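Let's practice the habit of predicting before peeking. Look at the sequence and jot down your guess about where helices and strands might fall. Then scroll down.
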Amino acid sequence: MLVMLSVAQHDNDLYTMNRLTTLFQRKTADVLNVYFTAGFPQLHDTVDILKSLQDAGADLVEIGMPYSDPVADGETIQRSNQQALDNGMTVATLFEQLQDIRQQGITVPILLMGYLNPVVQFGIESFCQHCQAAGVDGVILPDLPLEVYQREYQPLFAKHDIKVVFLVTPQTSAARVRQLDALADGFIYLVAAAGTTGAQTDMNADVDAYLSRTKALGLRNPTLVGFGISDAASFAAASRHTTG
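Done guessing? Here is the structure:
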């Protein structure tokens, strides 16, 4: 069942500064961003996992919206996506679970990460409205074409104060990185290596050079590294050149 939320009834902070903006003003290094798949391992675990991650010290949390064809994800996240879908997780169900999180003491910035198709099926404007009403601060949609975002969706996300995060890979040209930086308003997501998500990436000399090269561009947005960050050592290595 789709619950239509009234923005006016949720979260007194909706009309103040976005939590992502506040976070990066307060913390400029070693920002820890943690991902989990909504509806995994059990359908109704979402809020408990959010609370646990906040209590454990996560600076922000990405909630993965499960999808039946997660082509950019590795085996681990593919399995969690399928289990979540088998459990009955949908975009509508996720918003039902999130609708009162800010009243339950969850203050950590939250991003929804997933593929464009379920968002389009839900309705882009309705999705933005529900994000704002639930206190979601941003989205990561890796397969959203930049030109489509500029032409069709940018005003809707801006209207509802939903930060849009773009991905950069080692193969992304400097000109393209600057273009993404100009359009982004949350942070830039640096993919540590081309490929799928997972813990397979070593923070080797090539990755270090890529992160150093990106840092030298002097981007206006904070930068966070993803894909392959699995322990304290890889986090520390990645954070040498980035915000986290």
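How did you do? Confidence is low (pLDDT under 50) at residues 1-15.
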